[in-house]
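#structure-requests
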Amino acid sequence: MSARIKYTDESLGEIEVIPDFLPPPDELACREDGVKVTLLLNKKSVDFFKSEAAKHHTQYQRMVRRVLDAYVETEAGILVVGYAVGIIYALEGTHSVP
């Protein structure tokens, strides 16, 4: 069993307040409406995404969605609301993270 923490009434010293850098909870929980589709992909492509997803501890379908979202964002000039689009840029290595 670990030792108990003993709290004292000492001064904490100089305290610096830092600005809030976290996004609001509604942005963290943001989820776009999804549309189910049936899509036939090349085995080589699916194997690639499965392999990369395993390395990054995520689902390969999620990675495919992010690639498609990044493509739409680039080609259509619209902002895709997503909390991890930067992962795709990091995997490609050719774009900077927004």
